[in-house]
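User: Here's a chain of 405 residues. Predict its fold as tokens.
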Amino acid sequence: MNVSFFIAQRLIGKNEHRFSRPVIRIAITAIALSLTVMLMSLAIIKGFQNEITDKVIGFSSHIQVSNFSNGNSYESTLLKHTDSLKLSLSKIKGIKHIQSYATKAGIIKTNNEIQGVVLKGVSNDFDSTFIKKILTQGKIPSFGRHKKSNKVLISQTIANQLNLNIGDGFQMYFIQQPVRVRQFKIAGIYDSGVAEFDEMLVLGDIGHIQKLNKWSANDVGGLEIQLHDFEDLEKINQEVYSNIGFDLNAKTIFENNPQLFDWLELQNINVRVILILMLIVGAINMITALFILILEQSQLIGTLKALGSQNWHIRKVFIYHSLYLILRGMFWGNLIGLSLCWIQKQFHILELDKSTYYMSYVPIDLNIAHILALNVGTFIVCWLMLIIPSYLISKINPIKAIRFE
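Assistant: Prediction complete.
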């Protein structure tokens, strides 16, 4: 029989003495609030990262293959031997889908407005799954058929700036020798919330870019590669790079959007700071509660010592008691934190400025592994913090403690 655990059980629930009850309540509340804040912070940051990453992948896939000469230009150059290249890359394990694209800078001119944009031409292998999710009006036209379509998709941002609506037509000017003009009609309007794309991207038929660049019907400007598992990005990118020509380049979404992902990485620093601060708050309150319990039970400590109990056995009594309080606080912290996260995930109560945060509400990502790791980490840290203060018991003189009132 574990005597220390038995005595701790007898002490639990008998905190009606003098001043220990409010202190213990404060300690439990501190643990609960700390865990609630940590759970919500982690869920919100992971939600932000996942939502924005999904949107970037939706527009440009996981990996883009293009000519080295493209650099950061909006003008695609001809990608040679496309069919054989797609066949070679499709054999790489982990690749989900490969689609063709080409880009060309242009200027949209209406009766009263003018706007610089990038026309992204796509073909019949275009995966429209993501666009369907963010499409707010209209429908997605058929791209890459035998007869090229004059219908395009524009963002809500561009539509607002140029006062355009579904079914409206506009002219797009392409600066080359000589200057070319194309007439387009709006088939649909999307709204991703990511300003880097919404402010300039127009989705259209790749046939227009092929004709403007005097390419053949099979020529493209690059390939976009989607993966089954995001975790395999770097590994598969290396395989892709080794399977393409020396004059081609394979770039991941991190390389194509460094500023956006640097900003997301900064959020991880914020989470770490919050986790550390909350753990410190919870641990300090538990240490305070342990000191109060030891002070209040001085007579019990003295009696146990007089009966021959070793210091470590007596220390375990109070550590067990404190661990019960920690578990109780963690129970309420999980209940409150997960409930608030679920409510936000279902009903989007907390809203955001879409132009600043890339989305209209606070996103939530509840990951079981993260929740378990956070709970286990909190428990271990608080337990380790209790070891040192419990050493005070070894300094208590049994004779003085028995007389203590």
